[in-house]
Amino acid sequence: MRKQKGFSLIELLIVVAIILIIAAIAVPNLLRSRMAANEASAAGSERTIATSNVTYTTSYGIGFAPTLASLGCPVAGCGASATTAEADLIDSQLAVGTKSGYGFAYTVDPTGASDPATPNNTYTVDATPLTPNTSGVASFCVDQSNVVRRDPTGALPGSTGTGCATSILPL
After folding, report:
1. In the list 49, 83, 100, 137, which could disulfide-bond 41, CB 3.0-4.6 Å?
2. Contacts (Cβ under 8 Å, ≥6 apart) of 39
3. What pLDDT, on the 0 to 100 scale, is given for residue 162?
4. What is the pLDDT of residues 36-46, one digit of tens each?
5. What's the CA gap between 148 and 161, in Å, rounded?
6. Helices (H), 61-156
């Protein structure tokens, strides 16, 4: 009788079962890593917006930017002709209001927004996950104090549009 070469069906099933067990262990860790990366990106984007707003107000002398889009530039290369409407201080993706699974809501002082002669002295930027528990868990907030605050529940309780809630922990 000849000896057969190759793997038996049982051996192949055992190998497939081992691969499935390893995948079941690795996939949740991969998803947690992606959420942590999205949260780190959101916190970094909040810092970028705060720094850009300081640059905007010192460059143009008219207070903080009226909108998130005015901190950015919709087309590549408009930095040479930056204006108050397109300051080119943040990337175009962030200027639209979404980045790395987070949505950014930019709010200014309603008094400054309605009167062009009155500078915007306050602003608030809330970053919340677009898909909670998938793209991220925590929410972030920054205002004119330039302190990025993190709410681990994702709710941003007490954020009123005129500043971040003091109950939210700073990073």
Report:
1. 100
2. 136, 137, 138, 140
3. 47
4. 999 999 999 99
5. 15
6. 92-96, 110-114
Which uninterrupted H or E stretch holds 32?
helix 9-60
C-alpha span between 68 and 86 (Å, rounded): 10
> What is the rounded CA–CA span in Å between residue 86 and residue 45?
18
Structure tokens of 146? 């330039």
What gap in Å lies between CA 19 and CA 69, rounded to an integer? 47
Whole-angstrom distance, CA of residue 10 vs CA of residue 18: 12
Both tokens of 11, joined, read: 């051996």
CA dihedral for 12, 14, 15, 16, sign (positive or negative): positive
pLDDT at 114 over 80: no
Using left for φ > 0, alpha for ψ between -120 and 50, and beta otherwise, residue 149 falls in: beta
The alpha-helical segments, DSSP class H, found in 61-88 are: none
